[in-house]
Amino acid sequence: MLKENLLNVKNSLPANVKLVAVSKFKPLEDLMDAYNAGQRAFGENRPQEMFEKQQNMPDDVEWHFIGSLQSNKVKLVVPKTFLIHSIDSRSLLVNVNKEAEKLNKIMDCLLEFHIAVEESKHGFSIDDAVEFLKSDEFKSLKNVRIRGVMGMASFVDDENVVRQEFRRLKDYFDLIKTEFFADADYFTEISMGMSGDYKIAVEEGSTIVRVGSLIFGAR
Ligand SMILES: *Cc1c(COP(=O)(O)O)cnc(C)c1O
Q1: 163 phi and psi, to 5 degrees?
Q2: Is 150 in the pocket of ligand 1 (CB under 6 A)?
Q3: 170: Cα within 13 Å, side-chain hemisphere
Q4: Ligand 1 centroid vs 25 CA: distance in angstroms?
Q5: Which residue, by CA, sits nearest to atom 7 of ligand 1?
Q6: Which of 75, 80, 102, 209 has the most C-beta neighbours closer than 10 Å?
Q7: Is-above-0.90 flag for pTM?
Q8: Is residue 24 a contact partner of residue 219, using CB atoms and an 8 Å limit?
Q9: Per residue in 131-144, pLDDT tens?
Q10: How far is the CA of 134 from the centre of ligand 1 (A)?
Q11: Is the distance from the beta carbon of residue 23 to the nearest atom of ligand 1 less than 6 Å?
Q12: Per-residue confidence band for 122, with pLDDT thresholds at 50, 70 and 90
């Protein structure tokens, strides 16, 4: 079942779109089933849970942190994580940089944008992000690398609302790339799309989809 679900999602994606299998709340056996079916990129949203799974899964798993991250949990996430999708404030990026510096690594990150109508969702506004990217503070952060943007669309039935929000995120990506990363070959990623809306996200330019329940079942 799980393998079939995974392959169904995978086969519905264009070759240039990465599938992150969101395994939060799911037991290791489920992750290993996906691993044995060829999946390598996994997404988690709780630092402690991801940390424990990282100690118990093969070394070639690519870990994606997608949840809200408090500063006191940064040290759990930075050592073994491939990409942090959910940088939603200046202070968080400063803290991630500090931790990466201690480990002598460059931590790849995405800037999370608030594109949904729900206030409960996290993320920068475009104005705040631009101001931050212009700042000397940002330029001083040598141990983080911004690889693109991430966002979550509103949880609504109206497909047009969702599509407009993804389109806005793609516009933010284009604007930031032009203004700040025109020469950076690493600024390439748009993380958008979940189980309910990933097909729309792909149509609107997603390069990474984060799919959980369609693969692992309801949580
Ligand atoms: C849980 C989660 C997902 C996956 O959600 P599904 O609807 O189960 O596919 C994707 N992105 C984020 C940020 C999440 O927290």
Answers
A1: -60, -45
A2: no
A3: 16
A4: 11
A5: 195
A6: 209
A7: yes
A8: yes
A9: 999 999 999 999 99
A10: 31
A11: no
A12: confident
Question: Reduced to 3 DSSP states, what percent helix, strand and coil does the chain have, rounded to the nearest 5?
Answer: 45, 20, 40
- Are the C-beta atoms of residues 110 and 149 closer than 8 Å to each other? yes
Note the pLDDT tens digit of each residue in 11-47. 999 999 999 999 999 999 999 999 999 999 999 999 9
Q: Is residue 62 within 8 Å of 41, Cβ to Cβ?
A: yes
Tokens of 109: 């990150």
DSSP string, 47-90: HHHHHHHHHHS-TT-EEEE-S---GGGHHHHTTT-SEEEEE-SH
Average pLDDT for 53-65: 98
Which tokens go with 18? 């990465």
Mean of pLDDT over the chain:
97
